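Archive maintenance. Older records in this collection stored only the sequence; we are now back-filling the structure field for every entry so that each record is complete. The fields below show one back-filled record exactly as it appears after the update. Entries are processed alphabetically, and Winged helix family transcriptional regulator is next in the queue.

ARCHIVE ENTRY
Title: Winged helix family transcriptional regulator
Organism field: Erwinia sorbitola
Length field: 267
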Amino acid sequence: MRYNISARLIYDATDGTLTLPESNEPDSQLSITSSALLYFFLCNPQVISRDDVLKRVWDDNGLTSSNANLNQYLSMLRKTFRLYDIDNIIITVSRGYLQLNPDIAIEQLDLPPQSFADAESFSETPGNEHEPPVVLSRPLSAHERGVCWYIAGVCLLTIAVLLVFLSSIGSKASHPITLTQMPHGQCEIVASDEMLRSVSGTIYGKNFDAVRQGLDLACKPGERFVFFYGDRLDNHNLGRVFLAHCASHEDNPFGYCDNYFYYSWKS
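Back-filled structure field:
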């Protein structure tokens, strides 16, 4: 659906593009949410409450709604259209109510799709000289249907062979990682047994403290850390480093985590 807004701009609701009337190429493009918000007001030009806008544009589409989000996208729309000398595309009527600016001329360029009922009544109107042509398709012959089934069978067989081949070369035996909880001052650390076998506990704790302090992370009750580093990637530093800062719960040892992963931590 396309709209001519104030004879200055063509808005295409299908992709959110804004095109100057004398141009064939889009001049700019609205974000998905901004375009959905504008299209809602174009379809509902009457005064409408903010709660209805939040429900129809955000909640009904599975998005988290808030007045802060609505204010942000209203501001973005107004700013975008102000670049084309169109002020206040959406206005605040009163506290809690909004409206598409009635002073802005808006022309719908595309007619809505004709419904089946309209098309049927149109064809049955006496004296109608513009009935849509009827296109008859030729049914496929038995030979043509056989060729189609043969091609489809070959394609399916090829895909199946490829899947089997990829699964065979990409399959690797999985080995579960055993984690050991170790106290370290006020911090609770969970380390892999492989990590603890490769380095002494003192050095492990010293390196953990250096990384944690570098990230400005404090130890708090109900939180735990997972720390891993490998010192074989480079000769004079610790190479790759992984640190996860997690919240723990009774029913879930890792409620949520902030993960940090980087190379060449220490020279």
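Update note: Helices lie at 32-43, 50-58, 67-82, 116-124, 142-170, 193-198, 201-214. The chain has two domains: 2-108, 179-262.
Entry marked complete.
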